[in-house]
Amino acid sequence: ARSAPPPPTCSSPMACSRGKKATTCASMAGLLADGGECENRVVVDGNVITSRSPGTAMEYAAAVVEKMMGRDEARRLAEGLLFLS
């Protein structure tokens, strides 16, 4: 059986977040470059999308869909999953 590919990751949060706003879990906040840490649950800055924890996975997914397919499609997805009412 084939397993799913690993999710996109960055081995160096400082390199990935340089010049970008980003968010992460509290224990990793000090690793973000340029003081770009933000306490929002999901942060989109250009092509970089970050979230704080596994508990923000639905919001993160909606942000990815919005970035790739537009706001209307993200809203339809979220409503279909009962994430938004």
TrEMBL record:
Residues 17-66 form the DJ-1/PfpI domain. Pfam families: DJ-1_PfpI. This is DJ-1/PfpI domain-containing protein.
